[in-house]
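Hey, can you fold this one?
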Amino acid sequence: MSIHEGHRQRLRQRFRQEGLDHFDERQVLELLLFYAVPRQDTAPMAQALLDAFGSLAQVLEAPREALEKVNGVGESASTLLTLTTAVGRYYLVNRSAQSVILNTTGKCGAYLLPYFYAKRHETVMLLCLDAKCKVLCCKEVTEGSVNSASISVRRVVETALGANASTVVLAHNHPSGLAIPSAEDVQTTRRIAKALSLVEITLADHIVVAEDDFVSLAQSGLFHPGVDLED
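Sure. Predicted structure:
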């Protein structure tokens, strides 16, 4: 057994016995990279990634192209690192899907949060519900830059009609800020609510997400479903 293989075996055994609670960021990355880089010391690559991006979270959220600019990081390693975050998002969405009756703002917000997990760009989602608040689907409407996304009213309406929704909840994230609705968010909400009302679909809320926090425009008094429609 080589010195590297012995170290790998000890680190894997430590994880099996203790979990990750007592690992530092470099060790977590080192362990993860074992499965993309065989028969090689992955500690220098793990440290190089942390030096380049600043933290484990930023490494896992980095684009594949940026990861591959770090010395030693090839296609296998970049794919594994980006897959890790994607699997985490998929898991959270899959788990939240067990709660299919969303009849409160809190339930809607909790259901929507996983869809924005580790999203680097502003993304707009539309949650479609039937008359009993049962989830029909939750679809991405658009994805924009880090700071803004242009919401297509037509696409929102088409998505809601395609799902045969009675009620919808709009949601978008602020990737680099707080979950505080802007004046533009409020105006967009009213514009979409008016368009949906013309096809007899109610926009129940617009939820703004930032990391693990969310704010409801309806609960904040910034939007009144069925009433606060733009002229």
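The longest strand covers residues 135-143. Let me know if you want another pass with a different chain boundary.
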